[in-house]
Specification:
By secondary structure, this protein is α+β, with helices and mostly antiparallel strands. It has a single domain, classed as Chitobiase, domain 2 (2-Layer Sandwich), CATH 3.30.379. The chain is about 25% helix and about 30% strand. It is built from 8 helices and 14 strands. The chain has helices at about 10-20, 45-50, 70, 90-100, 120-125, 135-140, 205-215, 215-230; strands at about 30, 40, 55, 75-80, 110, 125-130, 145-150, 150-155, 165, 170, 175-190, 195-200, 240-250, 255-265. Helix 1 (about 10-20) crosses helix 8 (about 215-230) and helix 4 (about 90-100) runs parallel beside helix 7. The chain is globular. It starts with 11 loop residues before the first helix and ends with a strand. The relative contact order is 0.17.
Length: about 270
């Protein structure tokens, strides 16, 4: 029980990261993606998945013209999916986020991405989950760092030991997902008064694993140390940054997530 008059707070390992979204700030707007069960295949899919797809000419689907899929994908090959893009991981992640916010008396506003007005993102704190919404993938990105595109994560300026492209890994026999990646960005909103946090897994498991990392005090203490080491003064956490995570996946369930790389985004 909290002492009388003492405001509840998150563990120190979490508070430094989530502070912009906590009271007295208004409740952040959390969006979850709305993906069809018959989804568009992308460059992150295995050759077996692509071979089992069904191609439909782009001109036959004018409803997709304003989507990020139409701009990025050369062909429209659709594949049936029960676990990949059903937003299960993002939804489970929302549960973790709302539990965490409830511990400090913060409300949790959740909306599907198709019902979110971009003007709301400009004015509110926002947490955007899943990277295939047309406006999130177009407006909120860092092309000089880790860039989510066509189902893979591009690394424009690889540092020693880093790859130029991060792609999911699949079991060669079962074609089941074995490893996923996720990009996390902490950015200012358009008015630079509040924050936009983006958590983009290539598959839904990557999003879930990244959220589990970001709500785990011990793992976040590791991230805190890594960001301080990268900061110019080694004392102050940069307000804006980009993270790349990876996670093993077994039976469509993500395992332990780990930090692959990070970048500071200039103010």
């Amino acid at each position: 029980m909290q002492p009388r008059g003492h405001a509840p707070s998150l563990p120190e390992g979490l508070e430094w990261f989530w502070r912009p979204f906590l009271p007295p700030a208004d409740a952040p707007l959390i969006t979850i993606p709305n993906h069809p069960l018959l989804r568009a295949a992308h460059d992150g899919d295995s050759s077996q998945t692509l071979a089992e797809g069904h191609e439909i000419p782009k001109a036959s689907l004018p409803e997709f013209r304003d989507t990020i899929h139409f701009r990025e994908l050369k062909r429209f090959v659709f594949v049936p999916s029960l676990t990949d893009f059903t937003s299960v991981g993002e939804t489970l992640g929302v549960v973790n986020l709302c539990k965490m916010f409830a511990n400090v008396g913060q409300e949790c506003r959740v909306q599907p991405s198709r019902l979110v007005n971009f003007e709301e993102i400009k004015g509110d704190n926002a947490i955007l989950l899943g990277g295939n919404q047309s406006w999130s993938g177009r407006v909120f990105l860092n092309v000089e760092g880790f860039h989510f595109q066509s189902g893979v994560i591009l690394n424009r300026s690889p540092q020693p030991g880093e790859k130029a492209v991060y792609k999911p890994e699949f079991d060669p026999v079962t074609n089941q997902l074995m490893r996923d990646y996720a990009v996390v960005l902490m950015l200012p909103n358009e008015r630079r008064e509040k924050r936009v946090l983006l958590i983009y897994g290539i598959y839904t498991q990557g999003s879930q694993a990244a959220i589990e990392y970001l709500t785990n005090p011990e793992r976040m203490a590791e991230l805190h140390k890594a960001l301080l080491n990268l900061a110019p003064d080694h004392k102050t956490i940069p307000p804006y940054f980009q993270l790349l995570f990876t996670s093993t996946v077994e039976n469509s369930v993500p395992g332990k997530s780990s930090l692959v790389a990070l970048r500071i985004i200039p103010n």
